[in-house]
Amino acid sequence: MPHLDPEQLSLLAMYEGWEDADGREHLGVCPECAADYAALRRTVDAVKTTPDTASLSVPGPHVWAGIHRELGLAEAVQEDPLGGAATKPADSPAGPAPSNVIAFGPRKKAWWQRTGTWIAAAAAVVMVAAGGIWVSTRPAQPIPLAQAQLTPLAQYSATGSAKVVEAADGSRRLDVTLDKDEARGYQEVWLIAPDLSRLVSLGIMNSDSGSFEVPAGLQLADYPIVDVSDEPVDGNPAHSSVSIVRGTLTS
Amino acid sequence: MTSPAQASRGWDDGLTASFLAGDERALAAAYREFAPLVHTLALRSLSDRSAADDVTQEVFIRVWRSRNTFKPELARLPAWIVGITRNVITDAHSATAREVRKANAVAGAGLAAGEFGAGTEAAEVLADRLLLDGELDRLGEPQGSIMKLAFYEDLTHEQISRKLGLPLGTVKSHIRRSLTHLRSRLEVDHAAS
Predict the structure, then answer these.
(1) Which CATH class is domain B135-193?
(2) Same-domain check for residues A103 and A189
(3) Is 0.95 exceeded by the ipTM?
(4) Are the Cβ atoms of A59 and B39 closer than 8 angstroms?
(5) How far apart are CA A177 and CA A149, in angstroms?
(6) The pTM is what?
(7) Partner residue facing B25 (CB), from A14, A77, A94
(8) Which of A190, A220, A226, B78 has CA 20 to 30 A from A182's CA?
(9) Which of residues 25-44 of B touch A (CB under 8 A)?
């Protein structure tokens, strides 16, 4: 079947209930037409849909304070225009706006200009490596295979450690200990590839420590990053993108 | 702010004039109206609340400092703010290409669109909507009327043809061209950002 003609494609995108079985069938098999259709649908959605703006995240009062200071605005507009909105409870999916109001001196350095958490994590790795890893030679005891210092990300302050131990039967376990549970939702423990392109969930941690089985056959070298994320209770199994602590396993 | 219609039409173009004249209260009003959208778009893209805070600051600082470059005849202020937001987010990405590659890689590992929940989806739709706001009026006639009847009253092209007394083929071709035009408005913005 030839490509759909542009008018047919427009009508399909415009009217969801448009009766055009052949056209819809073609969309299922032709990536080119499907891409055009998707772009047109997005346009139609933008005009027609009413997004739920109540779920947008609200920046904290320090954000306006920084703008106010940087631009040298008048006292009359000193108050956060969003007023009490920023203190409203955590209806934003990624958690509430940070409650810690940062006192702005000179404008806060943009985060991408600051030394990254990654460098801190790397430094922690070096320290762990330099400190040496205790390896047991007693076969009856679990053998630590690797460990990591966990350092906080973004607005979190929890720290902790993680270690992988091998039991006599060859099974491996990841023990995670944090100094506090800072999750707004719940904590989930992950092992992540160095380039962050792949990740494996090890399980839920409802307190400040937990033990997790490492899948048999998983190469720790392929997934050396231990990550504890803050997951909203939303039924979405994917990583929330909000990490509390991270560290890299070294052996 | 319960609907995008309110969000954008709630933006009084009179405020745009005050804004251009340097009235700081108009900047505060723009912040009240659009900071949550800006923040959510940044959070979605950068996956870091503190980074989203920084982007939000930068956007409104740029909005104020470059207000003389805003051309009200080309776009409404909300669309202009959305455009600046996309630019600032891109700058944040390129300034930190290495770290962001990692952040995006996590995003690629199943953390694509919507992982922050409904809020970020809503932000994208709202941003698109603000970009298209006023575009129906700019289509001219009869295109504007045709598209409004199709979008808001769900009239089929036959019904529109009868209602406006236009040949069916004309209506179809206007729908196609108008939709293509609106689509290009969104894509130009995304390419520019």
Answers:
(1) mainly alpha
(2) no
(3) no
(4) yes
(5) 10
(6) 0.50
(7) A77
(8) A220
(9) 25, 27-29, 31-32, 35-37, 39-40, 43
Tracing tokens 């051309």 back to the chain, one arrives at B71
Question: Cα–Cα distances in Å, from B113 out to A112, A130, A238?
Answer: 22, 40, 11
**Integer angstrom CA distances of residue A79 from A90, B12, B22, B64:** 22, 21, 18, 17
Residues on chain A touching B1 (C-beta within 8 angstroms): 53
Name A187's bridge partners: A205, A230
Task: Show me where the domains of chain B are located.
Answer: 1-133, 135-193
What are the chain B neighbours of A40 within 8 Å (beta carbons)?
179-180, 183
Q: What are residue A69's phi and psi, to 5 degrees? A: -70, -45
Q: Are B115 and A239 in contact (CB under 8 A)?
A: yes
A160 and A40 share one domain: no
Are A15 and A96 in the same domain? no
Let me know if residue A40 belongs to a domain. Answer: yes
Residue A1 in any domain: the answer is no
d(CA B74, CA B67): 14
Q: Which domain holds residue A146?
A: 117-248
Q: Are A93 and B118 inside 8 Å of each other by CB?
A: yes
**Angular region, A209: left φ>0, alpha ψ -120 to 50, beta rest:** beta
Cis peptide before A93 (omega within 30 of 0): no
Q: Does domain B1-133 have CATH number 1.10.1740.10?
A: yes
Same domain for A42 and A133?
no
Residues A139, A241, single domain; the answer is yes
Closest Cα in chain B to A65:
B57
B15 touches chain A (CB under 8 A): no
The answer to whether B4 contacts chain A (CB < 8 Å) is yes
Q: Which residues of B touch A10 (CB under 8 A)?
A: 172, 175-176, 179-180
> Does the beta-carbon distance from A82 to B187 stay under 8 Å?
no
Report CB contact under 8 Å: A81, B28: yes
Would you call A94 and B119 a contact, using CB atoms and an 8 Å cutoff? yes
- pLDDT, one tens digit for every residue, chain A (251 residues): 678 888 888 888 888 777 788 888 888 888 888 888 888 888 888 888 766 677 788 899 999 999 999 999 988 888 999 875 444 333 333 333 333 332 233 333 344 434 444 444 455 554 444 444 444 334 455 677 888 889 887 778 888 999 998 888 888 999 999 999 989 889 999 998 877 777 889 999 999 999 999 998 888 888 888 999 998 888 888 888 788 888 888 87
Inter-chain CB proximity B2 and A236 less than 8 Å: no
